[in-house]
Design brief:
about 280 residues, alpha+beta, Alpha-Beta Plaits, 2 domains, five-stranded antiparallel sheet, two-stranded antiparallel sheet, 10 helices, 7 strands, elongated
Length: about 280
């Protein structure tokens, strides 16, 4: 509207259609970047940098394309400034976001490398989320319990449970439920250390094994996870996630998981406290 107010529309003979084609393609690519970011990234600080950087580029490229159709008086520089300023600011914001994305991806790649090595030997992965499955959880928990007892180190478990997940599937469909599980697993994976293990325990339940982590440290980590998982909104649903923390000492792998499950049941019944994550 500002461009139409300040400028005059060019006649078809004055329009350079090759420039229109080139600048139009650039604008469409920028819009595609923005769409991919919105559709594939979970909410968070890195996504915001990528989003606003791409949005500024779209704004700049749009005004650049508009120049091909509208002529502005030489003494009015307003549109020139509005066209030029968003591009470098957007590139800086986009670059900062890409650096954050790169850091996230390095963490995820470490997880994937370990999974790929395991897959060649055992094929113990959950087919949907590509996380370790329950058989691997029992094996690695038994191994780590022996190592940590011998070295007298702490070992903690986090169990995450999605409340009302069956109702969510009935309301929005199985595809939406699968998408939620995939995004949840990716978000959790990006927050882990290389020594941590994330497994899909059952359909709506996940377990994180924290090596060399005391109960107090595990609680701090659970609060950290809380801050990130609250951003995982989906279909404006009423999904909530319970997290319970358990430090493993003298139990076997089976006993440790059973005890953690009992803690989860108690927290859901309101008997014991847990970290409760609103959608």
């Amino acid at each position: 509207m500002l461009a139409l107010t300040l400028g005059v529309t060019k006649s078809p003979a004055e329009i350079d259609w090759f420039d229109v084609l080139g600048e139009g393609i650039v604008l469409l690519v920028a819009i595609l970047w923005l769409t991919l970011i919105i559709s594939s990234r979970p909410a968070g600080r890195v996504t915001e940098w990528l989003y606003y950087g791409s949005l500024l580029l779209v704004c700049s490229f749009f005004l650049d394309l508009l120049d091909e159709f509208i002529r502005y008086p030489a003494h009015i520089r307003t549109m020139s400034w509005l066209e030029s300023l968003p591009a470098p600011i957007g590139m800086l914001a986009l670059t900062y976001g890409l650096i954050g994305w790169h850091r996230e991806q390095r963490v995820i790649n470490r997880q994937l490398q370990g999974r790929e090595l395991l897959l060649r030997d055992h094929r113990l992965l959950d087919p949907l989320t590509k996380l370790y499955a329950v058989d691997y959880l029992y094996a690695v928990l038994a191994r780590d319990l022996e190592l940590h007892r011998a070295e007298q180190r702490s070992l903690s478990l986090l169990m995450l449970n999605i409340r009302q997940f069956s109702a969510f599937n009935r309301q929005y469909g199985a595809a939406a439920g699968d998408d939620y599980l995939i995004k949840l697993s990716e978000l959790c994976s990006s927050q882990l250390r290389a020594s941590d293990v994330l497994c899909r325990y059952v359909g709506d339940r996940f377990v994180i094994l924290l090596a060399n982590t005391s109960l107090q440290q595990a609680k701090i980590f659970a609060q950290h996870m809380q801050q990130h998982l609250t951003k995982l909104n989906h279909h404006e649903s009423n999904l909530k996630i319970d997290i319970v923390v358990n430090e493993i000492t003298r139990l076997t792998a089976k006993q440790a998981l059973q005890e953690t499950e009992e803690m989860l049941k108690a927290s859901k019944a309101g008997i014991a406290p847990s970290v409760l994550l609103p959608s």
